[in-house]
Amino acid sequence: MKKIIIFSLIITLFVSGTALALTAEEIINKRDDNEYVISARVESEMIVKNGDREMTKIMVSISDGENAFITFTNPRDRGTKFLKKDDELYMFFPDAEDIVQLSGHTLNQGMMGSDYSYRDMMESDKLTDLYNFEIIGEEEYEGRLCYKLEGTPAEGAEVSYYRRLVWVDKERFTGLKEELYAQSGRLLKDTRVLKVEEIEGRWIPMESIMENKLRKNTETRLIINEIEFNPDIPEGTFSIRNLK
Amino acid sequence: MRSKIKYLLIFLSILLLTISGMASALDIGGEMKTTFQGIFQEDKKMKSNLQETLNLELFLPSSASTEARFELDMIFKSHDLATGEKSVLDTAIKKMYLRSSFENFDLTAGRQPVSWSYGAMLNPVDYNLGAVVMDEAGSSKFINAIEVYVPFNWNSGLAILASFPENSDDIKWGLRGRTGYKGYDLTLNYVQEVQRDIMGLTVPAFKRIGANAKGDLGVFGVYGALAYVYENELEDGSFLYQIGADYSYSFLSGSKFLCQLEYLNLEGDKVINGIFGLPAGILPVGDKLELLAANINYTIDDFSSIGLLLATAPEDGSLMILPRYSNMLGNGLSFNLDFGINQGETDSLFGFLADQSQAELVMNSSISYPF
Q: Global pTM?
């Protein structure tokens, strides 16, 4: 009898231990479950700092799968809109009410002067579709125990950065820190999450800072003021008609 | 008299909104801008002008189907500061229109901007052409018009336009179809101009059939335009065409370089002068005009950039040079500095324009604050 009990305990421990050891893909999938948004309405602001100068961009964005519609509401950019549908990007200039299709090379430029490129802001694919991840350790970050993962581009994927290091909260499965590298190995950008909130059962980074490591004394802070998942998106939202 | 009517319209609009209870939902924004202009003349003298502009925009509450826009520029000009000439206050209503969305079309009526831009520096197929071809938001874009827009799908539609030019009793018509195909943005348009009187001379009523395309070719953005311009008989017209490309490169440090190059070919004296909004025979060009334009912009950091716009008429060697610098100073203030230099013989295109303005160099510096 004793042997049966001991054997059962060993089996239980073995099975439970195995179940707890998540793979890199599982960790990133859990993170994507939190942060990957298929459909949402987000009110956010972007604060760009360079030395002692600062500019704030306030925007409302609606996204649904491959499509995104962003409207800027801060005084300098009021009325400027972007429409991303499939791989095409259109911009609405509010003064002359022009709608111009932007050239593909602009996608890699900083959006409205920030460190976030148009591609960063509108990249809607899941990370697991774009990168192959591997667990390279565990670290504590800002008091939270994190998985540390390394991502390299998946075959055929069009990605913004050659290598990504990601720190994912072990309990909440939210990305708390990310380092983005060029193919040369040079650190290009560094993102740190300052505030996380639980909304509708998901842990969402509500405030984060991105620093361009090749420029001194600059940062872009992204603050989400309000987020609504799966909103009712009127038909025709992602259209040139709606830009005007 | 015209100013009084404008003020009356502004007042009535505000009164109506107040009475209708919409005042609490009304928001006001705009921009304050001070511009100092220095004109360095051929005789080494300098004229200076100061202009203060208050742009006011009323953000009126809109419903799902109706939107009203109102935007006004109040311009306070002090001409020739040295002589102390009397200052002048002028107002210009940029936008005052109602837009209603119906199930299958949108209707916009009133003073509105009409711009058929596709990112080119010189747009020969725009609805309104004229000397402000390189001005992104030139005053010629703001017209009294009625537009019907019929969408076919998310990126296709047809715009039908009727406008009422200020210096003509006739109605100007336009049609513009737009669609996308394999990543290319394509438009086809038709404009029936009106006969206008400028400087006591007549600019004839042209008709113009035009098309343009914009897309990507590898890492380059490419675009082009083709138009046929005729006066009365279809067979008496002439072609104009344009090709252009743009490219940008982001440095690892975050600064960015953008360059854009385009070539425009125009034929026919009437067409050439018409493109510049002038009667035939005004410009010292023959029956053919080629223009080469280049735009280079270097974004130094998130807040400042320098740029250079060049245009040349290769045949006569004349040149227009427009260097510029902009800097966001912080606290919402922006500083802009730009220069304009026209070089060439008197009988060349840009030399002629320099001669007309009697300026060797024009400098504009401005500080603006949006609110």
A: 0.86
